[in-house]
Amino acid sequence: MAQDNHNFKPATIEIRCNVLNVVVRSPGHEDALIACEGARDAIEFLMSQGLDVNGDIAIEIVTKLPAFVSSSTAGCCIESEHRVLILVYSEFRKFKTWFGIPIDHSLYRSLVSHEVAHVVAGYNFKIPKPSISAKEYIAYVTQFSTMKTTLQDRALSQFPRGGFEGDHQMNTIIYMFDCMRFGAGAYWHFLKQANGRDYLHAILTGETLIE
After folding, report:
1. Is 173 within the bounds of a domain?
2. Same domain, yes or no, for 115 and 81?
3. Are residues 22 and 115 in the same domain?
4. Is residue 43 a contact partner of residue 51, using CB atoms and an 8 Å limit?
5. Domain span at residue 29?
6. Which residue, 54, 120, 145, 196, has most beta carbons within 10 Å?
7. Exposed/middle/buried for residue 124 (C-beta within 10 Å: 0-12, 13-18, 19+)
8. Number of domains in the chain
């Protein structure tokens, strides 16, 4: 979920992820390492799709997200600051399930990949105000694409198979109604032969998913 501003209380440790332009601030070392892995997954995938991944990214691991974020949300992106906020793993686990399956560290890592994808996409959009569906399409495609096969299969099995047939089926209303179902549908749409990398770039240039 992309957001625009937040006053954040500094965390206790700071690490720079190896060979990445990513800084993580976190109360604990383990969560920070997982965040680096999730960031690397997102960056490697988006680089393979031809996006510029050289912009700086900050990840803050927090015990509580800002009040303007829904209570069902585990992470958000402060677009204007190229900054991601992610709940500490112990708080994330209180949701019990995510995509309909029990929460574990692999899901936590994919959560980070989703939010980091928002930041990378923000560096690459060629239009001033991309739609929510445009931003979330890229983030969910990144999240599912970077999951290990077993996790991906378990997550996708919770939703009707097939994906969206076209742009008219992907909008903010559908996303707000069921964001995870939107995400699964977006991923299946991305896998179709006519879409993939070219469709991602069409989103970034404002040729599609404009509301």
Report:
1. yes
2. yes
3. yes
4. no
5. 2-124
6. 120
7. buried
8. 2
Residues 103 and 178 grouped into a single domain: no
Distance CA 67, CA 78 (A): 14
DSSP secondary structure string for all residues of the chain: -EE--------SEEEEPTTSSEEEEESSHHHHHHHHHHHHHHHHHHHHTT----S-EEEEEESS--TTS-TT-SEEEEGGGTEEEEE-HHHHGGG-EETTEE--HHHHHHHHHHHHHHHHHHHH-SSSS--HHHHHHHHHHHHHHHS-HHHHHHHHTTS-TT--SSGGG-SHHHHHH-HHHHHHHHHHHHHSTTSHHHHHHHHHTTSSS--
At 26-68, the pLDDT tens digits run: 999 999 999 999 999 999 999 999 999 999 999 999 999 998 8
- Do 49 and 197 meet the contact criterion of CB atoms below 8 Å apart? yes
Q: 137: which 2 tokens? A: 């399409």
User: At which residue do the structure tokens 């989703």 appear?
Assistant: 114
Note the pLDDT tens digit of each residue in 177-209. Answer: 999 999 999 999 999 988 999 999 999 999 999
Global confidence as pTM? 0.92
The verdict on 23 and 76 lying in the same domain is: yes
Provide the CA 170 distance to its chain's centre, in angstroms: 17
The answer to whether residue 209 sits within a structural domain is no
Q: Are 185 and 142 in contact (CB under 8 A)?
A: no
